[in-house]
């Protein structure tokens, strides 16, 4: 017996690499034994793959522990900076920061978490605002996340478990959240008053790329936000926020991923 857990169609090398990366990412760092326990891979297989991943700098070894390696960070940074939607949105994000003096975030939704794509601005409040690039937060506890949840096609929210929709806000019921999301749809932007960080208030709205059909595979949906000390949170910030939204929508009106010469 190999001790490995086979997939229905056979476990490929990439599948095994992916298993290891997921395990190390979740744990922070793992020994060979830890990788075996979390992935079900045999000792000889796990050891061989760890050596290969270390040589490629996908993993970094410290003593007997393995952690995510610098090659992944390089790829992640390049992916962020080179993504066509990011390049389209960046000028408007800079304009929004200069226009308001506020910290600006760009984020996307992954499951019921919001993932921070970019952050523009710094200052005495910056450490408090968190939202580090690549970091996550429960969507229901951020203006960014609530704006993104409110923009989801019908049926998506109903597919989430109730506990997932109240993560980060255990005192909020599903019904309360759904009412708030409906208000956000009508208003066009979401509020966050000290829900993510004490003393911090945020205003956020969604931005879309090109396609009008929410089910389109070519539609990129993200959200932008302004963050300020909560005593400076003002509805008047919505005007420059919506202007930036319109600028991004205009800049991203042509999606280079679509082959317009194709009739398929």
Describe what you observe in this structure.
The chain is of the alpha+beta class. Helix content is 42%, strand content 19%. The chain has helices at 13-27, 32-39, 43-55, 70-82, 84-100, 126-129, 143-150, 162-165, 174-187, 238-251; strands at 59-62, 65-68, 103-110, 113-120, 136-138, 190-193, 200-208, 221-229. Helix 5 (84-100) runs antiparallel to helix 10 (238-251) and helix 7 (143-150) packs across helix 9. The termini are far apart. The model is unreliable at 1-9, 123-129 and 212-218 (pLDDT under 50).
Largest sheet: 6 strands, antiparallel
Beta-strand proportion: 15-25%
Strand order of the largest sheet: 5-4-3-8-7-6
The number of distinct helices, counting runs of at least 4 residues, comes to 10
**Cα distance, first to last residue?**
48 Å
Helical coverage, percent range = 40-55%
Average pLDDT level: 79
Low-confidence stretches: 1-9, 123-129, 212-218
| Cα radius of gyration in angstroms | 21 Å
């Amino acid at each position: 017996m190999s001790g490995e857990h086979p997939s229905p169609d056979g476990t490929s090398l990439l599948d095994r690499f992916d298993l290891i990366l997921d395990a190390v990412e979740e744990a922070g760092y793992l020994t060979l034994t830890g990788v075996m326990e979390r992935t079900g891979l045999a000792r000889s297989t796990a050891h061989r793959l760890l050596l290969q991943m270390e040589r490629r700098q996908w993993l970094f070894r410290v003593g007997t522990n393995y952690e995510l390696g610098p090659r992944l960070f390089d790829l992640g940074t390049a992916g962020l900076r080179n993504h066509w939607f990011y390049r389209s949105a960046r000028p408007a994000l800079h304009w929004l920061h200069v226009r308001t003096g506020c910290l600006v975030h760009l984020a996307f939704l992954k499951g019921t978490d919001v993932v921070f794509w970019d952050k523009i601005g710094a200052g005495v409040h910056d450490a408090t605002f968190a939202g580090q690039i690549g970091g996550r937060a429960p969507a229901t506890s951020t203006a960014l996340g609530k704006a993104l949840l409110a923009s989801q096609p019908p049926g998506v929210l109903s597919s989430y478990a109730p506990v997932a929709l109240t993560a980060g806000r255990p005192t909020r019921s599903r019904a309360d959240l759904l009412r708030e999301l409906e208000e956000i749809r009508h208003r066009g932007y979401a509020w966050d008053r000290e829900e993510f960080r004490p003393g911090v208030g945020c205003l956020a709205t969604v931005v879309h790329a090109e396609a009008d059909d929410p089910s389109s595979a070519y539609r990129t949906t993200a959200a932008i936000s302004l963050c300020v000390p909560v005593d400076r949170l003002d509805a008047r910030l919505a005007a420059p926020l919506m202007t930036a939204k319109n600028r991004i929508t205009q800049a991203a009106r042509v999606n280079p991923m679509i082959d317009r010469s194709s009739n398929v």
